[in-house]
Amino acid sequence: MRNLLILCTVLLMLSAFSLVYVRQQSRLRFVALQQLERERDKLDAEWSRLKIEQATLASPQAVARVARQRLGMVVPKLARDLVLAREPQGSR
Fold first, then answer.
1. Where are the domains of the chain?
2. For FRET with 38, which of 20, 65, 73, 75 sits at 20 to 30 Å CA-CA?
3. Backbone phi, then psi, for 70, in 5-degree steps?
4. Calpha distance 25→19 (Å, rounded)
C-alpha cells in the first residue's frame, strides 16, 4: 500500500511538472505568435504603400515627367517628324 502511495505521489508530481512545462511553452508560443502578427501587419502596410507607389510611378504622367526631368527628353516638333509609309508586302 505504501508503494502505491509513493507511486501515485511521483506520478502526481510528474503530471504537475508537465502541466507547468506545457503552459510555459504555450505562453512562449503565444508571445511568438503575437510578434509574428505584428510583423505581418507592418509588412502588409508596407506592401500597400509600395503598390500605391508603383501605381503612381507607372502612370503616363509620371513617366513623362521622369523622361523630361531626368532624361532630358522632349516631344519632337512636327517639322522634325518623318513619317515612313510601309509598302504592302505583295507589291515587290
1. 43-70
2. 20
3. -85, -35
4. 10
For each of the chain's 92 residues, which pLDDT tens digit applies? Answer: 899 999 999 999 999 999 999 999 999 999 999 999 999 999 999 999 999 999 998 899 989 999 999 999 988 777 667 777 888 887 65
Inter-CA distances, 62 with 38, 56, 66, 75, 77, Å: 34, 7, 6, 15, 21
Q: Report whether 74 contacts 68 (CB < 8 A).
A: yes
**Is there a contact between 32 and 38 (Cβ–Cβ < 8 Å)?**
no
Which residue, chain included where needed, has cell 504555450? 26
Separation CA 73–CA 71 (nearest Å)? 5
Spell out the residues 6+ positions from residue 57 whose beta carbon is closer than 8 angstroms to its own: 63
